[in-house]
Specification:
There is one protein chain. The chain has 3 helices and no strands. It is mostly helical and about 80 residues long. The chain has 2 domains: about 50 residues; about 35 residues. It starts with 5 loop residues before the first helix and ends with a helix.
Length: about 80
């Protein structure tokens, strides 16, 4: 998973810093890779999306909402004309 949300990346960084302080330098690279892979696996199992994906969906929703509002206005106008 290449697109890790910023909060998750921060968590990974903090865990790696803590692990570096507790583990000899010779083991830290392997440990860092293993921790990062494990955390990425956990995150990929969660139903999280990137900020970019969320922003795209918010834009789609806003556009759809505007169209619905426009259609409701047209329907209201037609109902008035037909006296329904």
């Amino acid at each position: 998973m290449n697109d890790i949300p910023n909060a998750a990346a921060d968590i990974i960084q903090r865990i790696m810093q803590t692990a570096k302080a507790a583990v000899p330098d010779s083991l830290s690279d392997d440990l860092r890779k293993n921790i990062k892979a494990a955390i990425q696996d956990v995150i990929s199992d969660l139903d999280v999306v990137t900020r970019e994906e969320l922003d795209v969906q918010k834009a789609v929703l806003a556009k759809t909402r505007a169209k619905v509002d426009e259609m409701e206005s047209i329907i209201t106008d037609l109902e008035k004309r037909l006296k329904l």
